[in-house]
Backbone:
């Protein structure tokens, strides 16, 4: 099984005192901008908090809420489970275009207990639990249930754009559940469905990578997920160094194009070229490939091998490899390569704070 960096973080409270002595030979008033900047990180006292006007909200109890970045971009979920005397609170990204760079969590007995500044906005730096991350897709905190039922779950998420980076691979789910809907269909070798609950959920055209195993119509499997640009299981593929060439091949739209004298390229030509590139095998029965031509296949392989260093970028597709855990046939799908770089603030959806920001909190409750 492929393992990514999903951590369980158990917090033990400690006390740290920070002493600072600021000496000056003269005193000058802060200007308005400086005052606002400082005030944003100064905790409001209890008497001030008691005067805050909270926005109207139907506070429905929740054990799972959406995680929104930039107020309206759905990037994942925050899931709360009770295990013994603790909560396990999990940030789980379901949008493969983003990864977790940091998380901050506050769990309190009353919404008035959230760390807030004088403007009524949460002070993230004073949340009780926090951790920086190396661009991962999931993270779990373990928190005593005695802390309360009011939860503010903040995250910093980064866009993922470099498909060769560890960040891109880490943003993919560890595993997916797959069922074959059809085999030997036009335009690809398989039609498959990936079960809900991950960033890859949905229907895809898929291609076969291994003639030494079988995967039949209506078969289902759990598969480990790999980017075609990360380290792959040892000895699983004869020529893993050619996945750059396969990525190039899949981005050319060859199916239906004229081969300059040998007829149009078919999906069978593409499938057999894939086998030659990474499986180092020749199709024997070819029962599900449909029409193909060995000369056209050789042309495709030769062209692809001139592009073994190909890296998909914005506007291209990138190959994602699915390796069954029960020794069925490995396959791949293609997804759009992500575009751009960005950083967004994200919060678990719920009710608003008194301040002007869109930041939110929710209250845990077992709704099953």
Residues:
């Amino acid at each position: 099984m492929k393992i990514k960096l999903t951590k369980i973080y158990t917090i033990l409270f400690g006390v740290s005192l920070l002493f600072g002595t600021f000496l000056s030979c003269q005193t000058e008033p802060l200007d308005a901008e400086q005052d606002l900047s400082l005030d944003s990180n100064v905790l409001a006292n209890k008497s001030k908090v008691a005067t805050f006007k909270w926005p109207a909200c139907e506070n429905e109890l929740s054990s799972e809420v959406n995680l929104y970045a930039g107020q309206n971009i759905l990037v994942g979920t925050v899931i709360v489970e009770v295990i013994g005397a603790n909560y396990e609170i999990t940030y789980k990204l379901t949008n493969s275009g983003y990864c977790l760079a940091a998380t901050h969590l506050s769990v309190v007995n009353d919404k008035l207990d959230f760390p807030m500044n004088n403007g009524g906005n949460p002070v993230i730096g004073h949340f009780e639990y926090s951790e920086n991350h190396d661009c991962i897709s999931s993270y779990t905190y373990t928190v005593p249930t005695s802390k309360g039922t009011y939860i503010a779950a903040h995250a910093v998420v980064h866009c993922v754009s470099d498909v060769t980076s560890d960040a891109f691979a880490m943003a993919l789910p560890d595993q997916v559940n797959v069922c074959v809907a059809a085999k030997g269909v036009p335009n690809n070798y398989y039609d498959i469905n990936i079960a809900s609950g991950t960033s890859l959920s949905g229907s895809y055209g898929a291609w076969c990578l291994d003639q030494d195993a079988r995967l039949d119509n209506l078969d289902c499997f759990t598969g480990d997920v790999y980017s075609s640009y990360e380290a792959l299981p040892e000895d699983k593929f004869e020529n893993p160094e050619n996945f750059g060439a396969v990525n190039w091949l899949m981005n050319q739209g060859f199916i239906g194009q004229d081969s300059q004298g040998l007829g149009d390229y078919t999906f069978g030509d593409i499938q057999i070229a894939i086998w030659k590139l990474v499986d180092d095998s020749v199709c024997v029965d070819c029962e599900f490939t449909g029409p193909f031509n060995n000369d056209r296949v050789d042309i495709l392989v030769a062209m692809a091998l001139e592009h073994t260093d190909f890296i998909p970028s914005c506007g291209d597709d990138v190959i994602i490899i699915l390796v069954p855990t029960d020794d069925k046939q490995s396959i791949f799908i293609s997804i759009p390569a992500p575009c751009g770089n960005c950083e967004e603030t994200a919060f678990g959806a719920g009710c608003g704070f008194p301040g002007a920001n869109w930041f939110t909190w929710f209250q845990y409750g077992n709704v099953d």
Q: What stands out?
A: Helices lie at 32-39, 46-49, 166-171, 243-250, 267-279, 294-304.
